[in-house]
Amino acid sequence: MNIQRGEIYFVNLNPVQGREQAGERPVLVLSIDAINRLPLVITVVVGTKGANILRDYPTMVRVPPSESGLTLETVFLCFQIRSLDPKRFPETPAGKLSEQMMLLVEATTRYCLGL
């Protein structure tokens, strides 16, 4: 399996606790490819349907289908960062973020982490 930074996969995030995003969700691979090739974990930002988020916040990035390859608008919640075992990922990605949108996700994630 060759999971790459910027790819989007639909992954089952259960089990969860409290306010964590649950169920089958789009996740954006944030970790660098050098780490993704190792037998470690993949760091992702969790997404949700754009229709579920009525107001934009500086901790989120709204991505239209034309920038992701997905069928629906997706909001990536840059404060919802998870590290997942590669076994959770399907064989092929559902989409890939454009370079421009990836830069925006990177900046927003740094904001959320105070980096």
Q: Any idea what the radius of gyration is?
A: 13 Å
- Percent strand equals 25-35%
Largest sheet: 6 strands, antiparallel
Query: How many domains, as an integer?
Result: 1
Structural class: alpha+beta
What does this structure look like?
- This protein is of the alpha+beta class and 115 residues long.
- The chain has a single domain, classed as Roll (SH3 type barrels), CATH 2.30.30.110.
- 20% of the residues lie in helices and 32% in strands.
- The chain is built from 3 helices and 6 strands, in the order E-E-H-E-E-H-E-E-H.
- It has helices at residues 33-36, 65-68, 99-113; strands at 7-12, 24-29, 42-49, 60-63, 74-84, 95-96.
- It has a 6-stranded antiparallel sheet.
- The protein is globular and about 40 Å long.
- The N and C termini lie far apart (31 Å).
